[in-house]
Design a protein that fits this description.
Elements: H1 14-22, E1 30-32, E2 35-38, H2 42-48, E3 54-59, E4 70-73, E5 76-79, H3 91-108, E6 109-119, H4 124-133, E7 137-145, E8 162-169, H5 180-185, E9 203-205, H6 225-235, E10 241-244, H7 251-259, E11 263-267, H8 271-286
Helix pairs in contact: 2-3, 3-4, 6-7, 7-8
Bound molecules: S-adenosylmethionine.
S-adenosylmethionine (SAM) binds near residues 219, 248, 270 and 273.
């Protein structure tokens, strides 16, 4: 029995309906207000979610870059391996894996829904190709510039200092959510490239997660909260349901609950990361700092 916390959802709510009807056979790892996290394989859970029921998906899949290489962390040589989950199974098997979850995501998105996928060159071209193959319409490829990226040790090529985040909508003709005014006129003090009251561009300068974001432990691929806050602010509205199939330390869950009135479904295969996500979600619930 893996239910840790149970609260009642609005019984007539769409979110509650999805959970009670289609996911009843799975015990959530965490159920906290309008946040639910499953400690399962996402391929399993995605199959059980009703067609056209989700407003927005943020996916941060394995980058398949754990190849025994080295990088530099805090001035020291460090192995790049993040875990077995991040090892490539070879190009063909990786492609099948990405295609399976991307097509499952398409099935559960509403026609006007959008999907974000983050990655480096190890995986992002495959994901971009598969988005197009699955009839998604690409809206933007965001460059997430990391101003504090680690130096390159080999000195034989350029220092990797960005990731790419693709944003695509399910149907070319449907009207997706884009909160243009908030992106243009909102406050983004973390980003040295964003000029006040001018259009948000597709290069975002955001540093790695701050120490306080790692208070409860580290995830080797944890995304900065500022990045997820921006993504959710840009592409969702009140009462939307956001899903993250590879939710790791729960950054998307925390960003959703800070923004309020967004429901969240997260899936994470590794129990230790579910524990970390749970601690972060509980802390957010008990602190009173929303950003609205
Ligand atoms: C790149 S990390 C996501 C990090 C997350 N965005 C964060 O901020 O913490 C990918 C995560 O996917 C998980 N994972 C890998 N394969 C999975 C699968 N089939 N189903 C669900 N989770 C999976 C890994 O355990 C890992 O935590």
């Amino acid at each position: 029995m893996r239910i840790l916390i149970t609260v009642c959802f609005d019984p007539i709510g769409h979110f509650a309906a999805i959970l009670s009807a289609s996911l009843a056979e799975y015990n959530p790892f965490l159920t906290l207000k309008n946040t639910v996290i499953f400690n399962e394989d996402c391929l399993e859970i995605l199959r059980s979610i009703p067609e056209a029921s989700i407003d927005m998906i943020f996916a941060d899949p394995p980058y398949m870059l754990s190849n025994n290489g080295f990088s530099c962390q805090n001035g020291k040589r460090a192995n790049v391996n993040k875990g077995d989950w991040d090892k490539s199974r070879g190009f063909e098997k990786d492609t099948i894996f990405h295609n399976t979850w991307i097509s499952a995501c398409r099935h559960i998105l509403k026609p006007e829904g959008t999907i974000w996928i983050s990655g480096t060159y190890h995986s992002i071209y495959q994901c971009g190709y598969l988005l197009q193959k699955n009839n998604f319409h690409i809206l933007n490829d965001i460059t997430w510039l990391k101003p504090n990226a680690s130096p390159n040790l080999s000195c034989r090529f350029f220092t990797a200092s960005h990731e790419t985040i693709l944003w695509a909508r399910k149907e070319k003709k449907a009207k997706h959510t884009f909160n243009y005014d908030i992106m243009k006129n909102g406050s983004f003090p973390e980003d040295k490239l964003k000029k006040e009251n001018s259009q948000m561009r597709s290069v975002w300068s955001i540093t790695a997660p701050r120490n306080e974001e790692k208070e409860y432990g580290k995830h080797p691929a944890q995304k900065p909260l500022d990045l997820l806050k921006r993504i959710i602010l840009a592409s969702t509205k009140e009462d939307d349901i956001v899903l993250d199939p590879f939710c790791g330390s729960g950054t998307t869950a925390v960003a959703c609950s800070l923004l309020k009135n967004r429901s969240f479904i997260g899936i994470e295969i590794d129990k230790k990361y579910c524990e970390l996500a749970k601690k972060r979600c509980l802390q957010t619930l008990h602190s009173d700092f929303g950003f609205f």
